[in-house]
Specification:
Blueprint: E1 3-5, E2 8-10, H1 13-18, H2 30-43, E3 53-63, H3 72-86, E4 91-95, E5 101-104, H4 106-109, H5 116-125, E6 133-138, E7 146-148, E8 163-166, H6 182-191, H7 257-270, H8 272-279
Parallel strand pairs: 3-4, 3-5, 3-6, 6-8
Antiparallel strand pairs: 1-2, 7-8
Bound molecules: zinc ion (ZN).
């Protein structure tokens, strides 16, 4: 049975996920990885605030006539899903219905990662990323589910900051297997500085998080626990329920403590203005 995401047909759902779960967030290069690690090491153990942050989400829905509309119920449920994932770690998401934008633009609706449409839409629609998270939804191109900017990119390109989500991935959307709102948890994980758990494959550094077992490549679907594509350098199973893997939404249920520590270091390093705006 074929599988359709935003009018693009895939032979099977496997064919779709093999293209990368449709997450287009860029893989950092070795220079960026080293620079970021050095900076994290500098702040390690001395964060300004002990793990409590409220992040205001600005929903910006790009539509194409009848396509791409998100209901109030979906927004509320998306916030709930984010809080289920992050709140126990001290990060809470809120949103003010008065800030929701709905903009009809067929070209922006079909934006691709790194396209001029992305640039134009973000420049015109985005709010101040030092005071909240710009959460764009659109149709996207080529079966992508979403992408995010990394926190260390904020300083050099303020207008690009935020997450872009395929509109069918919000809770109750039409992206089968990916419509529980977990794509937003995953992309916001990138936005807060996390990499995929399979990043670096079986190389020594992996995702630079000590308690996520290295694995050779993504896990897909709803895998049962086991060695799967785990690496010989670890006796542990692949992290098949981790939000930063590529499994179906239903299977994504956890961050590790190491990931959370890394998130907090990067909030302190790169997104401390969110702490300031909350404090003021
Ligand atoms: Zn990703």
């Amino acid at each position: 049975m074929s599988f359709i995401v935003n009018n693009k047909e895939f032979g099977t759902i496997e064919e779709f996920v093999l293209q990368g779960r449709g997450c287009a967030t860029l893989q950092p290069n070795h220079y960026q990885i080293r620079r970021n690690d050095e900076r994290i090491a500098q702040v390690s153990g001395r964060h300004r605030r002990a793990n409590k942050l409220v992040i205001a989400i600005r929903f910006i829905h790009i539509t194409d006539q009848q396509q791409g509309h998100i209901t109030e119920e979906q927004r509320v449920e998306q916030i709930n899903v984010l809080n289920e994932a992050y709140q126990e770690h001290g990060i809470e998401f809120v949103y003010d219905p008065a800030t929701v934008q709905v903009v009809d633009n067929a070209q922006w609706f079909g934006m691709d990662h790194g396209s001029w449409q992305e640039r134009e839409a973000k420049r015109i629609l985005g709010g101040n990323p030092h005071q909240g998270l710009n959460f764009y939804t659109a149709g996207l191109n080529g079966g992508l589910l979403g992408w995010a900017t990394f926190p260390w990119e904020l300083e050099g390109d303020v207008e690009r900051d935020g997450v872009v989500m395929q509109c069918g991935t919000l809770p109750g959307g039409d992206a089968t297997n990916f419509n529980f709102g977990k794509t937003a948890v995953h992309e916001i994980g990138h936005w807060l500085g996390l990499w995929h758990t399979f990043q670096g494959g079986c190389g020594a550094y992996g995702d630079h998080v000590g308690d996520t077992p290295p694995h050779a490549g993504p896990n897909y679907g709803k895998p049962i626990p086991g060695r799967l594509n785990a690496c010989d350098i670890s006796d542990e199973d692949a992290p098949i329920n981790n939000y930063m893997n590529y499994v179906d939404d239903e299977w994504m249920t956890e961050f590790t403590q190491g990931q959370i520590t890394r998130i907090w270091a990067q909030i302190d390093l790169y997104r401390s203005s969110l702490l300031d705006s909350e404090l003021s």
